[in-house]
Specification:
Layout (H helix, E strand, L loop, with lengths): L1 E2 L4 H5 L6 E6 L20 H14 L8 E9 L7 H14 L1 E12 L6 H10 L3 E7 L3 H7 L5 H13 L5 E7 L6 H12 L5 E6 L7 H7 L8 H17 L3 E4 L2 E3 L6 H7 L4 E4 L4 E3 L4 E5 L3 H9 L5 E5 L2 H14 L4 E2 H7 L3 H11 L6 E3 L3 E4 L7 H7 L5
Parallel strand pairs: 2-3, 2-10, 3-4, 4-5, 5-6, 6-7
Antiparallel strand pairs: 1-13, 7-9, 8-9, 11-12, 12-13, 14-16, 15-16
This protein binds iron/sulfur cluster (SF4).
Length: 392
Amino acid sequence: MINGSIGLTIIFQIYNLAGIYLHIPFCRRACHYCDFHFSTNSNTLPSMVEALGMELVLRRNELNGSKIQTIYFGGGTPSLLGSKQLDFLLNTIFQNYCVESNLEVTIECNPEDIINEELQDFKKIGINRLSIGIQTLDDKALLLMNRNHDSKMSLLALDKTLKYDFGNLNIDLMYGMPGETLGIWKTNLNLVAQYNIKHISCYNLTVETRTALHHFLEKGKIAIPDDKWNKQIFELNGSFFLENGYEHYEISNFAKKDFISRHNSNYWKGEKYLGIGPSAHSYDGENHRSWNISNNIKYISGIEKGDPNFEIEVLTPNNRINELIMIGCRTKWGIDLVKLDEVESLASKTLIMQLEKENLMDKFALTDKYLILKEEAKLFADQIASSLFFSD
Ligand code: SF4
């Protein structure tokens, strides 16, 4: 691992980048399950926007003129930015990078930020995909999550996206909250099904350490559903989304035809991306990852001095092979055997021998180029992948 500001330009400039991610590290309040990097103090928001613009300019040569296919405003809560600030960042990209005409531009929004004028402005400045953090339509669970909205606000937000014809819409859902019943989850699914939403990300709650939920769990104040319950919900989701015309293309992601997330799919296919903002990660598509410091003040001061605070990790061949296995088990595209062999000759042969040794061959469909995990084994994708990892 290499600290500091050495040689990023040299490392990245020979590769084409697929996308740009911008991290907006502010939230109105801290959700009890969240361990992302954000601050609830937005005093530095204007200087953060300036710094993000400066970082985009500072790093423009890393792309070596290659085309940007996707831009993603994530966070944090990007919908805290006004359309003028978003427009400034988009224009900085357009002026400094080579951008495809068929660009996907996504912004993550919280339901309370979906207001009529903003939706019109988003369209005007070129944002063509919304991702709304609905999580659940159960008010008790929203309260326990410490979300800044209730179910009524979420449904109103969905109505507005329909009114303004924001067709390319994702919503995030989260299952596995304390107290959730099968009935509550089915009601959630039936309500969202009425909106013909094009893309749904459906995550199982993970209780991360350093979160309020973890503290409540440790103190015995809450209990989370067990694996048996999660399996039931996972299977219910799979059949519900299939019946409603969605393709299960990644373990937690479902899309109607032509509406898979191009930005996230590029991550999963191992394409390159540039991460701008505190805590944002970048990948050169080969063997270098870097990430910016997770501290707003230090990030801004580093950028202002022209000396960004970041770290780089050099991936070993086994790191890269294991990532291909993990991503391949989680997606419909499967494990790319050709890419495995590009990293290390005969890696695909070693993997197939390992599958046979672990008696896992029947969990996969094998084509000439891919090993694809069967639908019925997807619940165990992460465990299966880790049992196949290469070690040094
Ligand atoms: S709004 Fe999003 S990023 Fe902010 S605390 Fe909640 S889940 Fe985390």
